[in-house]
Design a protein that fits this description.
19 helices, eight-stranded mixed sheet, alpha/beta, about 5% strand
Length: about 475
């Protein structure tokens, strides 16, 4: 009798294929299925040939090939396809079996599916998987959440295939119940948007204002990748700057400046608005992609709208150091905002998130992996209830030291008409967060003037609300006090 498989995987696109090969290389037998069954045969005849991988041509055949309790992982497009697959799987599974969604699913969908699948006596895991094609094959960052009883069943496989940090700790641990795993992956992707935008702004300044060549920028990013900006995204930017097209010119300069996106950054921004968290940098990163996409409009606008003449007077070496400081300080703000969003969500949804553990999960395998994440883990190890990363001693000192260069870079960019939406909004957030007094007192007066929305007074106890008849024509009736 043929040995039953340890896990089944549905969806043999890039991520699915590579995860299967990763699992098999760690000693697990894997059964695979794809809606287009020819893909199963092609996979078995090529990359999976001679490996401990079993091909199946129906969901029933897949389920029947699995060891109990069965574990079925979906690596398919988010949305209706996931619901349809769950509906088809549920009648084939038995109590205690586990359905796993490893795609980029919006966390409310995972919350809904956890309830549905558990109501059928089954277990459900919604897991973020980050690292792209290479990470899936060699070791991704994995962020599982959902039915807590499922964790011991999937833990041996997930932690075996995950990336490992220096001491061998896997970049995978239980995140939390319901949609927590996919929520954390969503925030990860939002931070990824921010990191990428920050790097592109640094590139823009060096290229257009300082006039650096791609080869010179290659050397800058190469140096930065040995310092505090050491990260996967800095590393690949270094490599991109050195990559030449067939004619020997930098390939990056031949790529159309029109960015795409798949929605996870947008989800992060919308969730922040829903929860009232000032996630300004990631929001700007999403909007910057949107602005880049109106390429034809920008070409026309460039013929009609003028800006200042680019002119740099100063020490280029010092200014490059300033750019590094601005990039690092803005990166800190981005992560501070992302962690603030996770903290607010944890309070809202009663999740017990391990913030230091999340930083550890992101240390390897994923797109935002960097040495910097070790500092975040240290911060939460010292103070698990830290309200904002900017209040940790290391980050206080770092941002204070970077502040002068950060401001010089923004001033130079604005003076020369170079857009730096992410770097500048990070500074605005920093200045707002460190301000004891903001002009929201005037805003509240305006709201009370036109809408009787009331206000609190600095000379009265907090929680006591007042309304003023500003014009003499209004009455004493005030609107109900609430915050969205």
């Amino acid at each position: 009798m043929q040995k039953l498989s340890d896990i089944g995987l549905i969806g043999l696109a890039v991520m699915g294929e590579n995860l299967v090969l990763n699992m098999e290389s760690k000693g697990f037998q894997v059964s695979v299925f794809n809606r287009s069954t020819s893909k199963v045969d092609d996979f078995l005849a090529a990359r999976a040939k001679g490996k401990n991988i079993m091909g199946t041509h129906s969901l029933k055949e897949l389920v029947d090939s699995l060891e109990r309790p069965r574990k079925v992982m979906m690596m398919i497009k988010a949305g209706g396809a996931v619901d349809a697959t769950i509906d088809a799987l549920v009648p084939l599974l038995d109590k205690g079996d586990v359905i796993i969604d490893g795609g980029n699913t919006h966390y409310p969908d995972t919350e809904r599916r956890v309830k549905l699948v558990e109501s059928k006596g089954l277990l459900y895991v919604g897991s973020g998987v980050s690292g792209g094609e290479e990470g899936a094959l060699l070791g991704p960052s994995i962020m599982p959440g959902g039915s807590k009883q499922a964790w011991p069943l999937v833990q041996p496989i997930f932690q075996a295939i995950a990336a490992k940090v220096e001491d061998g700790t896997p970049c995978c641990d239980w995140v939390g119940e319901s949609g927590a795993g996919h929520f954390v992956k969503m925030v990860h992707n939002g931070i990824e948007y921010g990191d990428m935008q920050l790097i592109t702004e640094a590139y823009h300044i060096m290229k257009d204002l300082l006039g650096l060549s791609a080869d010179e920028m290659h050397e800058v990013f190469k140096e930065w990748n040995t310092q505090e900006l050491d990260s996967y995204l800095t590393e690949i930017t270094r490599d991109i700057m050195a990559f030449k097209d067939e004619d020997g010119s930098p390939l990056v300069e031949k790529i159309l400046d029109k960015a795409g996106q798949k929605g996870t950054g947008k989800w992060t921004g919308i969730t922040a608005l829903d929860l009232g968290v000032p996630l300004t940098l990631i929001g700007e990163a999403v909007f910057s992609r949107c602005l880049s996409s109106v390429k034809d409009e920008r070409v026309e606008a460039s013929k009609l709208l003028s800006g200042p003449k680019l002119e740099f007077k100063g020490d280029k070496k010092q200014f490059i150091s300033d750019i590094k400081d601005a990039l690092y300080a803005a990166k800190i703000v981005s992560y501070a905002q992302g962690y603030a969003l996770m903290k607010t969500a944890a309070d809202e949804f009663a999740w017990d998130l391990n913030y230091g553990g999340i930083a550890l999960m992101w240390r390897g395998g994923c797109i935002i992996r960097s040495a910097f994440l070790g500092k975040i883990k240290e911060a939460y190890d010292k103070e698990p209830k830290l309200t904002n990363l900017l209040l940790d001693p290391y980050f206080i000192e770092t941002v204070n030291n970077a502040q002068a260069g950060w401001r010089r870079v923004i001033a130079a960019a604005v003076t020369n008409g170079i857009p730096v939406p992410a770097i500048s909004t990070a500074l605005s957030y920093f200045d707002g967060y460190r301000s004891e007094q903001l002009p929201a007192n005037l805003l509240q007066a305006q709201r009370d003037y036109f809408g009787a929305h009331t206000y609190e007074r600095v000379d009265k106890p907090r929680g006591e609300f007042f309304h003023t008849n500003w014009t003499g024509r209004g009455g004493d009736t005030a609107s109900t006090t609430y915050n969205v």
